[in-house]
Amino acid sequence: MRRPVEPRLGPPPTKAHVSVARLPDYWYVACRSRDLRRRRPVAVTVLGTPLVLYRTEAGRAAALVDRCPHRNVPLSLGSVRGSCLQCKYHGWEFDVDGTCTAIPGLLGPVAARGRSATAYPVREQQGYVWVYGRPDAEPASEPFRLPHLDDPRYTHAHRVVQADATLHATIENALDVPHTAFLHKGLFRGAGARTSITARVRRFGDRCEAEYLGEPRPKGLVARLLSPGGGEVAHVDRFILPSIAQVDYALGDDTHIVVTSMCTPVTDFHTKLFACVSYRLGRVPGWAVKPVLEPLGRAIFAQDAKILRAQTDTIRTFGGEQFVHTDIDVLGPHIWRLMKAAERGDARPTPEPAVDESIRMTV
Description:
The protein is an alpha+beta fold. The protein has two domains: about 25-130, 3-layer Sandwich (Rieske Iron-sulfur Protein), CATH 2.102.10; about 155-360, Naphthalene 1,2-dioxygenase Alpha Subunit, Chain A, domain 1, CATH 3.90.380.10. It is built from four helices and 19 strands. The chain has helices at about 165-175, 220-225, 285-320, 330-345, and strands spanning about 25-30, 40-45, 50-55, 60-65, 80, 85, 95, 100, 120, 120-125, 130, 155-165, 195-205, 205-215, 230-240, 245-250, 255-265, 270-280, 355-360. Strands 12-18-17-16-15-14-13-19 form an eight-stranded antiparallel sheet, with helices on one face. A four-stranded antiparallel sheet has the order 2-3-4-9, with no helix packed on it. Strands 5-6-7-8 form a four-stranded antiparallel sheet, with no helix packed on it. Helix 1 (about 165-175) packs antiparallel against helix 4.
């Protein structure tokens, strides 16, 4: 037998490390409520686990592992029968808690060890279906709630997008200020002279945030549309465990924009973002700018998605990450530290920050 020849040419050695943390004791968005219809199961993947979502005939959302315990056929191929999901192969039926309730043709008892499907806790709120990361668990908390959805002054835009990147890289990108002057030059920042500002960075036990002080309105196209009059911005970026990225902009008392990305890790290098943009623009009705704002938002994210995909390709080529941080990478290291603490089970909300520092930078 011939032995394979090991390649002699390749990139320089890189530590085989990737910024991936497994955080099962939290809630993640599995889909939007409108995408989960009666009698039509939906296949999703959360934390690398294939799941099937279905809605009972009474309207309740449920989640099971997408594998029939009988012959390993995906349950997402099946159909809804009352409160149960029926497998397409042999007709086994499973209730919302995974209990096997019917086996067509079997004369003996249906209930037996090993016949149940694995069930996951589910919550449905504010138009989203959330799944807890650990099966058959009693969650100690409830899912994140979006701000301003009940405030009639705000207009809301919802969008689901995909990123070929780790959860950490995706969230850092969403909250990273320096790249906007280069990757999104002209759309968001990068037009004109740079301004010196202060970033106040605080890390609590379950979140971190950066408040940017002395920041003028960005000079890009999006900012000019949202605030033609200019002015100084009240700008806070925040990360909330396990996977919430939020950008909060206010200009005076009238203009307020909050972009919340509820990020769901699908696999190590694939993240799904469920984004909600809530905004009020003073006397300008939200519906008037929505047809212009949404295409610009898609263009900005397309640029982010392309650069994140290139980053992932490079990490795979070299066999690992090699990150060098500077002071103006204000949130990335703190986000990773919180993720690792959560992975160890050491992340807890705290009233006072463990870190409170100020950093000078230009934008």
